Amino acid sequence: MTHRCCNRSCRWVRRIVNEVIAFNEGIGGDTTNDTDVQRLSSIIDRHGDASVALVQSGTNDANSRRTANAFEGDMQSLVSRLFAEGMDVHVATSCRGRTTS
To answer: Residue 97: inside a domain, yes or no?
Structure first.
């Protein structure tokens, strides 16, 4: 059984016997600081046995008045903390503003 979500903020992925189970831990409006500082510990507590983490964050940071340096520091912290838990960490970016023809 695979759980799919339409919200792409953050997805925590665990592989189980040729099956991928994805957990969407994104909260609309959260910035990387909200995720890293306020919620990452509880997310790791719930999914600490995951082998892979897919992180898509930054859209709300770009829409806020946060600096690029603040965003970069929060992303580095978030990725480092997941990596320290033994997860393969993959960072996805938003395609916002791109058009296709």
So the answer is: no
Distances (CA, A) of 80 to 11, 18, 73, 77, 99: 16, 27, 10, 5, 32
**Residue from 31, 24, 30 nearest 7 by CA:** 24
pTM > 0.90: no
Place of tokens 């395609």: 95
What is the extent of the structural domain holding 44?
A: 10-92
pLDDT in tens, 24-66: 888 888 888 888 888 899 999 998 888 899 888 888 888 888 8
Name the domain count of the chain. Answer: 1
